[in-house]
Design goal:
alpha+beta; Monooxygenase; Methylamine Dehydrogenase, Chain H; 3 domains; four-stranded antiparallel β-sheet; elongated
Length: about 600
């Protein structure tokens, strides 16, 4: 049987795919009327049949062509999903070669038509629905042909001679533009450029833009006045300022300016107490002849880091025969009171763990102390208050009691010294104000319903905590009770206040922060909300930014005064902590097991 020759592709496709040419999906001129014009122009949407590639000579043997077959058996490559205009697009045929209309050709002429002439079929369309996707659906008859491969038509440039002609013409036009027109031209040219063009532009323009600039033309601090540069650097934190020193020599000189580091030293977070700060500056001035503020800040920074990380050196002092109840310290000595009725003075300048001086005079447990320079005031369960002279000039053996105050009818539990007076609280439910020099009782404050356990005062008010679960605020001058704060569920064991807040600790294991003006509790630090203490809070102290508290749970905790966040927990004691005092450099605490740290 004679094998039928291959049919012309357009005639064959129109016969094997009749539904494609007339359906609303298809508007391709190849399928419909791609038989007009000779000129070849680029078109916006690729023709769905451009992906059909038929070699000029079939690569398959003739034996593989079944007799009587009407379909193409040559290799065909077809894109799986080809863009097509939607049904509401309007298409227009442009300049399609007339040779496409010859449907009677066969054999090699057919392959030549599909591989060459069909690629010159161009269409110009306008689509009112720009969001609608133009594509052949998965069940399109085109997908039934052979292998499927995505087709991307490469961008074609113009011939070289024509390019140079167009280039000279465009340059001539560009020279005729004024500055505004040139700017608009360049702007629109950049908008239509792609990554290769923008990269080339940046490479070519970099040496031109910086041709007459110095080597540090991009350094903003170099071109600003030094005063303005220092003002900018003044907003940086310490770590960023240290990093600026690594940039170059000029930045290093700016970053080492004395004013920057001095301002950092006086920021609230790094500020020290008046006594400690004064002593630190005196040491540096005596060592260098001036104050190196950068070195001063480094020392303060390390100190703050140790506070926040709990990094400390522990020294233990032993000597009392019974539990220690109270402690005070200054730059070179620690003073402690005990249930063994004695007061011991320990030297921090020596490495000996034993007390250098023992004061005897009380006939009961020493419950409270206050050290003010070389003057020590103590209160005891023998109902008396004693004033001791610890002046270095008279020697340790000649330290003596100078004044004894008698007036309380029960244990003197707490006291504070200042402004030439002593204010004490007692188990007899009263507070008393004494003249320090003579021991005369100036006033008695009554109002608490139980023992007074803590007291503190300033020039305008006295604040006391009691076993009646309340905190009372008194007038310093008249002794009148100004306010009563209730909120603790048990006795108030310790208090601290400043001009706006009162911080209190209690047997209920909680620490509360009170607002003095509104007389309300504004914050509670407990185990549930802030990982607080699990035992009785025995003592606490606060300064401008932190609270340090100790409890029967054998821990000392440091808190942020503003946020109430726990900063660090110290776990060095083996027994409940009964008393503590701290400054910017150290914490001194005592426990029931007769040791002082």
């Amino acid at each position: 049987m004679m094998k039928k020759p291959l049919q012309a592709p357009v005639q064959h496709l129109s016969r094997s795919l009749p539904q494609l040419s007339n359906t609303p999906v298809c508007h391709c001129p190849v399928c419909c009327s791609c038989r007009a014009g000779d000129n070849r122009r680029s078109w916006n949407t690729p023709c769905p049949l451009l992906s059909l590639t038929i070699p000029e000579k079939s690569t398959r043997p003739s034996s593989m062509i079944s007799p009587g077959s009407q379909s193409l058996t040559t290799d065909v490559t077809l894109t799986r999903k080809t863009s097509l205009p939607p049904s509401n697009c309007s298409s227009e045929v442009e300049n399609v070669p007339e040779s496409a209309g010859d449907s009677t050709s066969a054999g090699d002429s057919t392959s030549s038509f599909l591989s060459a002439e069909t690629r010159n079929c161009h269409v110009r369309r306008s689509c009112p629905d720009s969001t609608k996707r133009c594509s052949v659906e998965e069940d399109s008859p085109l997908l039934s042909f052979g292998r499927r491969k995505r087709f991307r038509r490469p961008r074609q440039g113009v011939p070289t001679v024509q390019f140079h002609t167009h280039l000279r013409t465009m340059l001539g036009w560009y020279e005729e533009f004024d500055d505004a027109q040139k700017n608009d031209f360049l702007k629109q040219l950049l908008e239509i450029s792609n990554s290769p063009q923008t990269h080339l532009l940046s490479t070519l323009m970099a040496p031109i833009l910086h041709a007459n600039c110095p080597h540090n033309c991009t350094d903003i601090l170099y071109w600003l006045p030094p005063g303005l540069s220092l003002e900018i650097l003044g907003y940086l934190d310490a770590y960023s300022l240290a990093e600026c020193q690594k940039v170059n020599k000029y930045w290093y000189r700016l970053s080492c300016d004395t004013k920057l580091w001095r301002d950092l030293c006086f920021r609230p977070f790094y500020r020290l107490g008046a006594k400690v700060a004064s002593k630190q500056l005196e040491i540096f001035k005596s060592r260098y002849g001036y104050i190196p503020w950068r070195r001063v800040f480094i020392e303060r920074y390390k100190l703050q880091h140790n506070w926040l990380t709990g990094n400390c050196y522990v020294r233990t002092f032993e000597g009392h025969t019974q539990g220690i109840t109270c402690v005070q310290f200054d730059d070179f000595r620690i003073v402690s009171g005990s249930s063994d009725k004695t007061i011991k003075v320990w030297s921090t300048r020596s490495n000996t763990p034993w007390g250098g001086l023992t004061l005897r005079g009380h006939s009961g447990t020493v419950r409270c102390l206050h050290l003010n320079n070389n003057q020590l005031v103590s209160g005891s369960s023998d109902c008396t208050i004693k004033v001791w002279d610890l002046a270095e000039g008279v020697g340790w053996s000649r330290s003596r009691c100078t004044v004894t105050m008698v007036g309380h009818s029960h244990t003197v539990r707490c006291l504070q010294v200042g402004l030439g007076v002593v204010v004490s609280g007692s188990y007899d439910h009263t507070l008393k104000k004494w003249r320090l020099s003579t021991g005369e009782c100036l006033a008695t404050l009554r109002g608490h319903l139980a023992a007074v356990l803590s007291v503190q005062f300033d020039c305008s008010k006295i604040v006391s905590g009691s076993c009646d679960n309340t905190i009372k605020v008194w007038s310093f001058d008249t002794g009148e009770c100004l306010a009563t704060l209730s909120g603790h569920n048990n006795a108030v064991t310790c208090i601290h206040f400043d001009h706006s807040r009162i911080v209190s600790g209690s047997l209920d294991t909680q620490i509360k922060v009170w607002d003095i003006k509104s007389e309300r509790c504004i914050q509670t630090l407990d185990w549930a909300s802030a990982e607080g203490h699990t035992g009785v809070v025995r003592c606490l102290q606060a300064d401008t930014w932190r609270i340090v508290s100790a409890a029967d749970d054998k821990t000392i905790k440091v808190w942020s005064l503003e946020s109430g966040k726990r900063l660090v927990t110290l776990r060095e004691h083996t027994d409940g902590v009964t008393c503590l005092q701290f400054n910017d450099l150290k914490i001194v605490s005592v426990t029931w097991n007769k040791d002082s740290l």
